[in-house]
Amino acid sequence: MIQIQTKTSGKEYWRSLDELAGTPKFQEWVRDEFPSTAGEMLSGTSRRNVLKLMAASFGLAGLTACRRPVEHILPNVRGVEGYIPGKPWFYATAMSQAGSGMGLLVEVHDGRPTKIEGNPDHPFSLGATNSFHQASVLSLYDPDRMRNPVNEERQAKWEDFNNWIKQAFDRARFGGGNGWRILSERVTSPSLAALRTHVASTLPNVRWVEWDGLAADSSALGTNIQPLYNFEKADVVLSLDSDFLHQDAGGTVLPMKQYGRRRRIGVDDHDGEMNRLYVIEGRFSLTGSAADHRLRMRPSEIGSFAADLAGRLGSGGNQLQVVGEGSGTDLRARWLSALVKDLAAHRGRSLVIAGPRQPAAVHALAHQINQALGNVGATVTYVQLPAGDNRPQLEVLRELVRDMSSGAVSHLLVLGGNPAFTAPADFNFEANLRKVSNSLYLGQEYDETAAACRWAVPEAHYLESWGDVAAPDGTVTIQQPMIQPLYGGRTAAEIVALISGYKDQQSYQIVRNLWEQRLGGEKGWRKALHDGIVPNTAWPTVNPALNTAGAAQPQQGASSGIELQFVPSSSVYDGRFANNGWLQELPDPMTKLTWDNAALLSPATAKQLGVAVADVITIERGGRRIEAPVMIQPGQADNLVVIAVGYGRRVCGNVGRGVGVNAYLLRTSDAMTVARDIRISKAGGRYNLAFTEEHHIIGDLGAPEVQKRARGLVRELPIEEYREDPKAVAEMTEKIELFQLYETPADYSRGNQWGMAIDLNVCTGCNACVVACQAENNVPIVGKEQVARGREMHWLRLDRYYKGDAENPTSISEPILCMHCETAPCENVCPVAATVHSPEGLNDMAYNRCVGTRYCSNNCPYKVRRFNFLNWHKDVAKVTEMVFQPDVTVRMRGVMEKCTYCVQRIQDKKIELKSAERRLWITDADHLQTACQQACPSEAIVFGNINDPDSMVAKLKQLPRNYGLLEELNTRPRTTYLACLRNPNPELEGRHG
Amino acid sequence: MPRPVFPKSIDKYVRIGLALLGAGALAGAGAYTYFAHPNFTETGYTPTQPVRYSHKLHAGQLGIDCLYCHYTVNKAGYAAIPTTEVCMNCHAQVKPQSGLLQLVRDSYAKGNSIPWVKVHRLPDFVYFNHQAHVTNGVSCVSCHGRVDQMIEVKQVEPLNMAWCLDCHRNPAPRLRPVEHVTNLAWIPDRDPAAIGHEIIRAKNINPPQNCSGCHR
Question: Is a pLDDT exceeding 70 seen at residue A318?
Fold first, then answer.
């Protein structure tokens, strides 16, 4: 077990508990950049193997090199209007996640979608995306998708399925659909809603059930009212266990956009308007990481805090009155009194938001406080959803399960969502589903639900289908296919249309006829399709009556034992992305864990239980038990276990099967978010976890310089301090006089010069950039074993630093990519000149020259170079090869690679402008963006021409809080950072609260 | 003095042997530089195409402009091979019964692409862009030769990196006014370098010589 000796190591910033404690394991990581290979080649057997392999490969080379391979060019038979081979097309469409749609633009290369971007015109994207949107294109080419209908676990033909469904769902035989049920995720698609209305009229006995595995308990407002928050208008934000900057952003990126705009200090006219964010939570989320003040508190205690807050702010109607004086000096009391004052001082400009893992009572309290503060209509508005079932999803599902169990359900149509995996464990959903004689599952992969249904048929991916989805405010986007269904999949609308005898049977007709009628003809339809938004479709705003019955209920006091909170996974969400390698390998933003979930414990709780990282524990709850490895999460509330759901998929494709632990097994209908009555014991044994928090570490342990340098890597300071002395940021490292060693230094004063500025005050650490880079640049997946060896290939990584003591630190994320140093240390040591500088300031990497000495990586102070130890692309399925971006080389084994500033985009833009306008000079108006910049939900990453004084990047680099990493090494990095500012409340001294 | 192991006469053979070895190594190196050079391995590649299409007839004798068929060459990186529809634009009327065109008609009727064999092939890590060259006054003939005199298309240039760089380092003599880019028989009326320099000034031409100009 790690002994935490905060005092002895005296580190201010640290990346892992091992680093904080200075364990030998950590020192070993730092000593060897590629630890697992050091020494490997020295052993006799291994050298012999190498010689054997070399002999074999020379032999093969001799055989194959003599013949030039014959390549064919297969042009289209008939021309397609406007189509130019090799030029990508962009189509507007939308992806639906958690029941809300987000508008996207999809890049299509010669008929195959390769890259997802946000639609700048869509109100909930504004051009950005999250990691799930970015990775969804890989799911399209998943070789493990269902390819044929499956009947009772045997492959079947489409015609057999068509015959079966015609007979089984014969409307004439079953009067009005008696005993029929339809189970779907929350329906926000207008066309599916129209079909639902049609079903209600033609088959009046059919019941339609909605179920989302991770839906919030929304009974405080009623299911059909949805709150919309405006973080841009809020000066003071209080989050009650809401991770609105990451996982609770509702499948969109608007909260990050709005939050970012209030933190972009010093640019445009935003100066002096920085908001203040308070977060009260049990786990350590990214929102907590961004907070100015964070109070760790177990989820079950948050309710009573909210009740006290509401009481102090005067719960009576809309009249604000601060009730009573603050009493007590403990942390909670100080927080209460500080919050009361701060919120009351920002009437109409504050916002209290409760997270989806809090009970309805806390939501009711949050709405009540917002009402009392006059925030309704200003920072929070409510929209009325179209009519649907107004009861909580859980109750409706419970009824369905009861009917399935009693045999009252003869026909069940399950439209995606994998409910057999996500339903509460006490519902025995899977066993009851098997009792239904005519069950049909429509899903993209063969999953737990598919295996329990009589028939399973492939569903078309959203990039393959016609459809429509509504954003959280109701704005509709029409989905259009980018590619023919790869495996002939159908859409939910088509199956419902088939069984209900709707007038249109194909998705295209269903969607087109509906919208042509509503938009008045073809012209409106074409425009809506092109723009990616249907005008005037937002839902009406309402002023709902609060269901305060829940709020009035006494809050359950905190239990003395340990409690367990279920959270969505930052990688696989509710389990639906389990077979997506990009997401599985994406390090969790806080724990940096890949390819697994783990039971997160605070350091004190772990000590109390006598467990260390990677020890396996048994979590028991009412006869249900799971075994999970332990991760220690600094800053988490004590006596709390946090575990991500969605892992441990039993029936899944090859990537996700059996990865991690299924936490749903402990989740029952009485404890959907927090379980209290758990018992924890050591299971014995250890488990191999692959986490990256210590990989590619910057700095050299033991050197006395380290502390000075570490201070300079991430710089943060209170905004007041910054206002008083803007030079404070620059002075955070020792000033060293730098000399020019070159007699004729390169001239970077003319032409386009590329540079990047990353605003740490805006960056939330959400990972969208990491996946965007992976998608744009054909970055390979390496697998868990190789990640554990430190061989992950991400060109862009997020270094997460903790600051302060291990029990209650603050945290900050810093995106690290190639700095494109003007005097790059990597270039000097390359024996074959495979990495050299371009006249535009790019550190070019020529893969075909690289011989793989790895000297460059050894000499890179930022540790941004990645080596292809193996041919990662060797086993990529044929269909998955379609995801490759044709403008970027697919790298081979044995070469070094790294961030190129998306040089393919730069070159394309240059050729475009040069051919059309004879212009070489590129400005911000030309919309040249790197993939990470384009994806960034908070606009933290800014790239551009630094020689253009009007470019945003040049302006940012002029700010006094701009600094370069390890500038004292005289590397002259082109990527620089803007120091993170905090806006603490003077009343709450210190950020630790 | 002990008797030497080898007789003195062996020296002669050693010298001859060494000389032979040296000559052999030189010859080997020379042969390698010659036979393994793209000038030998790449130029002259003339695959048999599935349709016996003659550029000499179409582009040379009939004078059809390159852009009629390869219409994306000034709009995109790739110079697209024409669709079957382009062939049929004329051949629906011209020689509609010819046996040589059976594959073309089949392709058009059945919707199967004609499997043309690629002649000019660059490695996958090279990103050549036709648009950037053609719109700046580099003629088709510079890389593809006198296609209008070829019955079967043949690769005439080595297309290796040194050959590319020859021009990128000194583009002036190879440039011509854009309107003459597809005129393969064009002969400059004065010093080509002078014309080239004018074009370079007018069009702001600055061919990249750094790695990422072509490798991404």
Answer: no
